Amino acid sequence: MKISAIILTLCVFTLTIETQGQVYLKSEYASFSSFKDENNQKTGGSGDMFKVSGGCTLPLSFKEEENNRIKMWEVSLDATYAKYNNKNIPTFMHPDNIINTTLSISHLRPIGRKWSMLGVLGGGIYSDPSQIKAKSILGSGGIVFICHISDNLDVGIGIGVSNSYGIPLGLPMGYLNWHIDGKYEVKVNMLEAAELSAAVVFNDWFKIRLIGLEVDGMSAVMDVEGKSKIFGSVSIKSGLQADFKMGKTSSIQLIGGGLWNRTACVINRNIKDYFKWFGREFDPGFQPVMYFQVGYKLGF
Q1: What number of CA atoms fall less than 13 Å from residue 235's CA on the CB side?
Q2: Do the Cβ atoms of 84 and 96 come closer than 8 Å?
Q3: What's the distance, CA 259 to chain centroid?
Q4: Do 289 and 265 meet the contact criterion of CB atoms below 8 Å apart?
Q5: How far, in Å, CA of 128 to CA of 118, rounded?
Q6: Above 50 in pLDDT, residue 64?
Q7: Mean pLDDT across the stretch 230-237?
Q8: Which of 54-58, 132-136, 189-193, 264-268 has the lowest mean pLDDT?
Q9: How far is CA 43 from CA 31, 88, 210, 222, 281, in A?
Q10: Euclidean distance between CA atoms 164 and 174, whole angstroms
């Protein structure tokens, strides 16, 4: 089973919970690399990627209940614009511009001494900015049941539903959140994406983080020869991140590293073709390159 297929189905989710309000802004650049087709052969095409993302999370209510369990509602707005300078790659294989937006509402509540329930409902626009139509709006919903094994380890399982492929498609979702805090930090977080990282805290305003694995995705609804298709791209990367704290609640992040895999798949928006995708040995995509990212976060 291809992990990229599952990630792209669930990439319209913003299934996270922040215990405080947060605003973020970041930009990312990946340099030019050659493009390979579904047979893993170079096509003569190449391209780079520039992305700008921003968003905010606003808790609507927050209450700490028994056993330090949290009950809360929050609303999130996220938007990403990606520009691709592609050469010798037709736009029906890879759009030159993509916008992804998501407005979602999430709810976390305890359902026992050791369990909590996390749910989300949302939707947004996933399209080339010049081709936005009603069918560019994708909706999603999901529910995850979380077991609090210890103070720093949560695991869970649930289901996510999306209309990315026409009729609503449900897929199982796993959840893992493990962390170690202090001078040395370790973080493992897997839900709608994945992150494995470790950090050294030098003082109150500076720390270095090694990102062992980070996964994210972009998608766009397309019209190709009268057929509704969906483009999807999954990025798998790692790097070194420097965090500079600018005050009690704000920080700047500088990241440099390797983008090891950036897929670029276009398939028909139907369930039959979605499951055919799992039979592929290779996905079309770009060769490994360097990437750089600058980000800013503000909590309130």
Answers
A1: 22
A2: yes
A3: 15
A4: no
A5: 31
A6: yes
A7: 91
A8: 189-193
A9: 18, 8, 34, 22, 17
A10: 19
- pLDDT-above-70 percentage for the chain: 92
Q: Which amino acid is at 137?
A: I
Contacts of 67 (CB under 8 A, 6+ apart): 110, 113
| Distance (Å, whole) CA 233 – CA 284 | 10
Number of other residues whose CB lies within 10 A of the CB of residue 179:
14
User: Within a 13 Å sphere around the CA of 135, how many CA atoms are in the beta-carbon half?
Assistant: 13
CB-based burial label for 126 (10 Å; 0-12, 13-18, 19+): buried
Evaluate if residue 6 carries a pLDDT over 60.
no
Compute the average pLDDT of residues 159-188. 86
Using alpha carbons, list the distances in angstroms from residue 64 to 70, 84, 108, 127, 218.
5, 45, 11, 39, 35
The pLDDT of residue 1:
40
How far is Cα 81 from Cα 202, in angstroms, rounded to an integer? 34
> Rounded CA gap, 277 and 265, in Å?
9
Q: What is the pLDDT of residues 76-85, one digit of tens each?
A: 999 999 999 9
Whether 102 contacts 15, CB under 8 Å: no
Cα–Cα distances (Å) from 207 to 94, 134, 196, 200, in that order, read 38, 45, 16, 6
DSSP lists the bridge partners of residue 156 as: 146, 175
Cα(59)–Cα(7) distance, rounded to whole angstroms? 26
Q: What is the pTM of this model?
A: 0.90
Q: Which positions ≥6 away from 271 have C-beta within 8 Å?
A: 165, 166, 167, 169
